[in-house]
């Protein structure tokens, strides 16, 4: 079995078009929901690229603004040619990753981890020594990262109850402590508040400044 502590990694990050992404944030952030979704993806991508174990990040998206932002950050963009859902996008990205970065381990990473810390991601990737591993999200039912050793099929099963689905498929849960930033995906206003407490990346922080400005009637002056 490959030793993933020294294997380089290619990360696949799927990003839904921001016009329809993060619908559960709409009530709390009606004006800034698309901007928040875009910022989450940018901060997640930048943090992932900051890990010394990550050789490349492939962002699977059909959103042109996200594509431009993550390309500027150093990621590769893969069009969502299947356009058939999250797992299909990840399978497409993993296929491209295996072709372009053969021999690398591959991990699917959620795009909504605005507080992601490169050091915590590095610790997680170093702990992925099983053929397939995964990280359970903060609520305890979902998945924020699914990893596969070189040559092992990713077999993503994201969706409702994905933690149990991934474990049932043979993936091993990563049980490290102090990896809150890897587990803190954002779907609700409460999730975002927790991410802000952890410390979000610059793109999300900029949007949150606009949110604060809008709430106080000084959006144009927010900094």
Automatic annotation (TrEMBL):
It catalyses: phosphoenolpyruvate + GTP + H(+) = enolpyruvoyl-2-diphospho-5'-guanosine + diphosphate. InterPro entries: CofC, Nucleotide-diphossugar_trans. Keywords: GTP-binding, Nucleotide-binding, Nucleotidyltransferase, Transferase. Phosphoenolpyruvate binds at residues 143, 159, 162. The keyword Nucleotide-binding applies. Its EC number is 2.7.7.105. Pathway: Cofactor biosynthesis; coenzyme F420 biosynthesis. It comes from the Bacteria. GO terms for molecular function: nucleotidyltransferase activity. It holds the Pfam family CofC. Guanylyltransferase that catalyzes the activation of phosphoenolpyruvate (PEP) as enolpyruvoyl-2-diphospho-5'-guanosine, via the condensation of PEP with GTP. It is involved in the biosynthesis of coenzyme F420, a hydride carrier cofactor. Belongs to the CofC family. This is Phosphoenolpyruvate guanylyltransferase. The lineage of its organism: Bacteria, Bacillati, Actinomycetota, Actinomycetes, Propionibacteriales.
């Amino acid at each position: 079995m490959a030793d993933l502590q020294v294997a380089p990694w290619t990360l696949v990050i799927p990003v839904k078009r921001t016009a329809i992404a993060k619908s559960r944030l709409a009530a709390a952030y009606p004006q800034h929901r698309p901007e928040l979704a875009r910022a989450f993806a940018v901060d997640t991508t930048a943090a992932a690229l900051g890990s010394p174990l990550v050789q490349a990040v492939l962002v699977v998206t059909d959103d042109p603004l996200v594509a431009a932002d993550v390309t500027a950050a150093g990621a590769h963009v893969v069009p969502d040619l299947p356009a058939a859902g999250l797992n299909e996008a990840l399978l497409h990205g993993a296929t491209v990753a295996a072709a372009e970065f053969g021999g690398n381990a591959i991990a699917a990473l959620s795009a909504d981890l605005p507080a992601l810390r490169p050091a915590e991601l590095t610790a997680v990737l170093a702990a992925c020594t099983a053929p397939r591993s995964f990280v359970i999200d903060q609520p305890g039912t979902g998945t924020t990262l699914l990893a596969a050793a070189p040559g092992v099929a990713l077999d993503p099963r994201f969706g409702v109850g994905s933690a149990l689905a991934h474990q049932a498929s043979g993936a091993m849960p990563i049980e490290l402590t102090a990896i809150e930033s890897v587990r803190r995906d954002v779907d609700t206003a409460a999730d975002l508040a927790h991410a802000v407490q952890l410390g979000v990346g610059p793109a999300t922080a900029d949007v949150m400044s606009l949110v604060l400005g809008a709430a106080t009637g000084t959006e144009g002056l927010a900094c």
